[in-house]
Amino acid sequence: MKKLILKSNLCPGDILTMTAAVESLHLAYPGEYETDVRTPASEIWQHNPRITKIADDAPDVETIDLKYPAINRSNQEHIPFLAGYTEDLGRKLGRPLTLKVNRPCLYLSDDEKNWVDQVRHHVTDGRKIPFWLVNAGIKSDYTAKAWAVESFQEVVDRTRGRIQWVQVGAKEHDHPKLSGTINLVGQTDHRQLIRLAWHCQGGLGPVTYLQHLCAAWEKPYICLLGGREPATWVSYPLQHTFHTIGTLPCCKTSACWKSRIVTAGDDSNKDKQENLCQWPVFGLQRPVARCMAAIRPDEIITLLERNLCHPS
Fold first, then answer.
1. Any domain includes 188
2. Rounded to 5, what percent of the chain is helix, strand, coil?
3. 238 and 178, same structural domain?
4. Across the chain, which distance is largest between two alpha carbons, in Å?
5. Is 101 inside any structural domain?
6. Helices 190-199 + 209-216 axis angle, to 10
7. Which residues pair with 2 in a beta bridge?
8. Which pTM value belongs to this model?
């Protein structure tokens, strides 16, 4: 069998979509490849039966640095992010390869499936309660993804007693504390967050790691998109996407792909004028893009009440 080491140095959410490329390769060409990976968030690959340990200096091994250049066509073509790595892998192998799955591929061990989740272990004295995950945070490089903190808080307040919200996210990012949630920000490693997503009823947040985790476990996710990215690029079967493409001048016919609301003063390319939101909204706890401010808490709450807040 041909030995492959697949590499990417991008963020955990991106790496999670890369699992679909590995799965698609093995489904398309069964028994022809052994695959190993070199990525951040290596916990994503634990228990994945498609992964075989291969040394960097193994004989006849081919190392491929994977990317997703399809993103540059996402405003013109109906292509999902999930297919990005898959397309690049096929091109670099010189073989036809298309996406064979509709979600990222995660695996739990039997032991993990039997472990109690962090909510039961640390908060509810072992009692199993249904909960939703919420990521209200942003990274400094893409502040244009932010939804108003006040809007997140309104959703939590108006569903109190019907939905138990658990706030998650990395401690190094900007996560305003939401009142009325179980706060696990900075308290989960990758496997713990993967298991929380497996246990949860659903998730709420922007285009982020949590979105891909919910997709992997076939959990509903409410995606706060606005006009930054094409809805077709970020779609999943059980996802409810709130976008503003076609409703504002800045995203009238296509997504804007802006990075930040205001400059961060870090001399990054993302601070350049062409990468800043054209329609920022100020006067909130943190500035947001006009497209994100256009997504009203009422819309989210109506969706939750209609379809999603009944515990299984």
1. yes
2. 35, 15, 50
3. yes
4. 60
5. no
6. 50
7. 33
8. 0.96
